[in-house]
Each structure stands twice: as structure tokens, then as C-alpha cells.
Model the fold of this input.
Amino acid sequence: MLRAATVILRKDLRLRLRDRSVLLFAFVIPLALTFVFSQLFPTQEDFELTAGVVDLDGDDVAAGFTQGVVAALVDDGLVDATTFEDEAGARAAVEDGDIAAAWILPAGFSADVSAGDGGEIRVLVNPDRALSAEVARGIADGYRAELDRISLVVATSATAAQGALSGSQLEEIAELAVAQAPAVSTTELIAPDQQLDPTSYLAAGMAVFFLFFTVTFGITGFLEERQQGTLQRLLAAPIGIGTVHLGKAMGAFVLGIVSMTVLAIASATMLDASWGDPVGVAVLIVAGVISALGVMAFVGSFARTAEQAGNLQSIVALVFGLAGGVFFPIGAGTLGQLALVSPHGWFLRGLGDLVGSDSWTAVLPATAALVAFGVVFAVPGALRMRRETA
Amino acid sequence: MSDLLTCVGLERSFGDLKAVQGVSFSVAVGETYGLLGPNGAGKTTCISMIAGLLDPDAGEVTVAGQAMGPRASAAKNDVGLVPQELAIYPDLSARENLDFFARLYGLDTARRKRRVDEVLEVIGLTDRAGDRAGTYSGGMKRRLNIGIGMLHEPKLLILDEPTVGVDPQSRNAILESVETLATDGMGVLYTTHYMEEAERLCDRIGIIDQGTLVAEGTRRELVGMIGEQDVVRLKTVGDVQAAEAACAVVEGVSSTDVEEDTVVCLVDEAAPRLPALLAAVGATDADVSGVEVREPDIEDVFLHLTGKALRD
Done:
């Protein structure tokens, strides 16, 4: 079975190499787009958020944000902050494009936080400056998360002491919690998917996006065999339909692996991208190809012709690619969670985990998710194909 | 001669359509057997079951003593299939097409190279062996299609209407190739709806209509089924359908058909019946402009057995 499948694989690869569109989809276009997009996005070193601050509260907790978090970011050269007296002024500045975002700390903010009633930092953003908007939201969310953590520490201490702690003691505990609180990490905010820099992110995004097109050549190849009559001839040979499927899957797998590997190496050497530890990258690439094969086999099983399959697969690849954030870095909030409905999102998350870790094993959660994607889609896809061919 | 192919009680349906119903026949070693029938008669479905592409609903196919089916690798090795539609890779050359299928059939390196060269010679494509098949003429593609089928030296070669859409020159070359195969000892199963091809190539002919094998035998045996009948062809001017209807009720006429402007009648004895036939046509809105009387052929047998022409 494997011998015959390899014969089919070799024939398919020979045909595909003569088909220039494969070379374009697998290598040329992803690299070109990575180069173009990388010129559009700022690097972490270039990034500076121009933001306004409106402190309508004026109390301690608000000051912790304006004089603590924001001041530190200004000192680091990551934020260019302007203070506004009221929200209208800040809103006008955002609308005029003078600043990319503004933080509004409403009156009673500190009191609300101290009373355990939450407290909200409102963020005005310029929709045309998506990255800055995302970072501004992230800074506000980060501060809110720290306040919640401190409140939890204080509340837990008070409960544990069963009323034995005085007000001054509780304040000391709160100060200790504040002292131990980590600063809001601007690195994470600017590059939300862990520490992947924009060029690496784009290179990986383009690679995994076009991977889903590259593997379709294997799936549509089966339908092409049927359309041009050669499937009948293959099945008249002493091989089973399973061998034909295996040969096609092997061809798609090899194309996918070669495409991803070449793109990883090319983007590293030509565009200074860094995908992380080679072992982790290799594991992630294999898992990514498996997921692409499974998803595209499932989608292809609904098509009667190669053209239909190509159209359906393109739509799915585009939707998954957009959801997975292959064209622009997306944050860790709602969009970040949405990205995980897509194998693309898991692939990029796996690379982010890898870069942020010392061990290649950091990719294992993403790898498991990608393989699960592949299996969950491939099994019904294979069953459908088998039924269609019978 | 021992049987190379045996089909017993083959049946196959597609939904409510009974494509093949109880077809049984055999092909001996070195024999060319023609399966003759109009389009949609069930020939290709029979071929698909014999080549192991389809499982029959009932019945059995045996090739060289081995049961045939989609998973019967050993039996498939003994069969070469030339599908009705071209089944070649247009982006590969003739040599690459042949080499691919030779590998698929597991030919070792030496035998593969020898057979590829031999087949290229037989199908007359040695000079164009390195050119992509997509650049070939229709006849050259047809010859390559046949070459792939005979590449692994099967005991039984199945040719499913191999001359459909082929120019007369290429058609003749294909027929000569098939004649050569038969003399080399290969069993050939040849389906066609061209009576002349069946008469020229086949040792025996099976006539299939509506999924049923209605008769089989040598040409002489089949023509003998009509008895001492003659074929009378009346070329007409005017309402040819009315002329046919008039001829059909003349005493001694067993069947009639229309071929363009000609009424074809199977008649017990032509000479005494001719005046009545001419009178019958004369009584309609048609006139007879020409008369031909000849011995019956396979096409007439088909007409006699099914009441319709092969090309209907």
C-alpha cells in the first residue's frame, strides 16, 4: 500500500511542480505579503502610544494609574501622555487625530474601588489606529486586573482574621500587595501574542494562512483524477481506494511541510523573523499541516468538482485566517479568545508560547489543539469521501 | 480453449435503474469477444464489474480462475482496462504516463523500461515520447490510452469503445493494434456500438440490450438466427415513417426500421415480397427512389432481436 501510495505521491509532486500556482501559493506570495505588511506595522522599538489622560477623580487609586502606570510608561518612552481637564477635550483630540486614545478616570473611581464596587477606566480610541487602541485598552485592563488582585488579597486577609485586623493593619496589607504587584507589561500589550515581534508574527501568519491553500492541491487532486477519468484507471490497478487517498494525503502533507519550512527559513534569513526554538517550530509545523489537511479534506468532501472544492476551501481558509488573526496581531481579550476557534490562532499562539518560553515543550498545548482540529475534521471528511467514491 | 474470463449472472442496479440483469458469458484465452449494444445498453456497467471497479449486486466475475472485485489485487493484475474516456495525465509526457502506471502495477525497473519502450513503439509514439500528452492529437491520445492498458502485459485486455470520437485513420490504427494483441495470445473484451468493428475484430459477439445479453455467438451463428431472411432497403422520398408503417404489415416482413430516408425491412424472401413492399409504400405519401437487397449482417440481427437499430 505504501509503495503504491508513494508512486502516486511522486507523480503528484511532479505535476504540482509543473503547476506554477503551487509555487506561488506555497512560497512566493506569503513571503511577498510578509515583506509588504511588515513595512506597514511598527516594530516594538518604533512604537509610541500618543494618549490623553483625564483624571476626574483625583484620589489615590486614580493617581496610582496616572502617576504610577502612565508615568512609568512615559519614562520608558512607550507612551506620550497629555493631560486633559475634561472628557470633551480628550474626545476632540482623539477625533482630530492628535492622540490615538484617551483614558477617562471618572469621579468616584477611587471610592468605588476601595468599596469593592469595581471601578471603570473608560478608554476613548481612534478606530483608524487599531494597534494603539488595543494597547490603550490593554493598559487600562491591566491596571483594573491589578486592583482586583489587591482587593482580593485584602478581603481574604480580613476574612481569615475574622475581624481581628484593624483598619491600619488592613492598609498595611494593601500596601504590601501593591508593592508586590507587577507593573503592567507593555511588551505584552504591544505584542499581544506573547513575545512574537511583528515581522515574525506576520511571517508565521502568512505561512499558516497560505498553508491552507497549499494543502488543497492534494485534496483537489483527487477530484481532478475523477474528472479527467484517471481515477477509474487507478482503481482498476491492483490498489484500493485507500491507497489513492493515502497518496494524495502524503502529497499534500509533503507540500505543506516543505512550504512551511521554506517560509520559516526564508523569513528568518531575509526578513529577520524569529519563530523560536527549531524543535518547537518543527513540532508546530507538523501539527499545523495535520490540522490543515483535516480541515481541507472535510471541506473538500462536500465538493463534486475540483473547482467547487477550491472555492469552498478558499472561503474556509479565509474565514479561519481572519478569525485566527493572521493579518494583524490581535489582543488577548475577546478577539484573542475568538482566534482560538481557528487552527491559525492556535498556531500563532503556539509560536508565541514558544518564544516566551525556554523549552520547546511550550508548544505542546497548541500542538494538541492543532492535531485535534485535524482529527476532528479528517475523520468525517474521510468517511464522506469514501462514501462518495463507493 | 480454457476460459480466461467468466461472468455468471451479473446484476447491477443504480437506484431504480436495473443497468445489468443476469448477464453471463465467457472469454477464452486468445479470444476477442465483442460486447455489442447501443449507448446505455449496460456495456460499461458490465466492464466496470469485470475490471473490479464495481461490486455486482449479484453474480460473479472470475479472471484466470480468481474472483474479481474492488479489493481483488491478484485478479486486477491480470486485467488491463482501456476506459471509454481518455484516462491520461495531459501534463505528463507519454513516457511519464506509461512509467507511472508501470510503477503502479509493480513492474521492476528492467521490465518497466523494456515495456515502456515496447509500448511506445506499438502505439507509434516513440518520436513524441517526451512531449506532454496534452499537446498530442486526439488519435495520439487515444493510442496512449490504449498503450497504458496493455503496459503490464495483462492476460485480459478490456477496451471500452476505444474508437469513439476518433478520426478514420486513427481508428484503423487502433483496430490493427487490437488484431495484433489477439494474435499475441491476449484475451480481449471489446465493447462497441459499431457493427463493423465487432464483425472485423471479434471471434464471438454478445449482443446486449437494456442490460440483458440477448444473444451471443460467432458472426455466422448470429446471422443464422435470422434464418433465410434478406434485408430490403427502400430509399424513399416523402413521409418515411408512413412508408415504414406500411411495410411493417406486409406479409413476410419480420421487422422494420428507419435509417434517415431509408426503410430497412427484414424479409423472409426478398424476390416474391418486393412487389408488395413497393405497392405498400406507393399507397402512402412517400415514393420509392431506390431499392437494395442484401444478405443480413450483425446490425440486422440486432434489429431482428430488439426491434431497433444499434445506433438508436
Q: What stands out?
A: The domain at 227-295 of chain B is CATH 3.30.70.100 (Alpha-Beta Plaits). The mean pLDDT of chain B is 88. Chain B has two domains: 3-223, 227-295. The first strand of chain B starts at residue 3 and ends at 14.
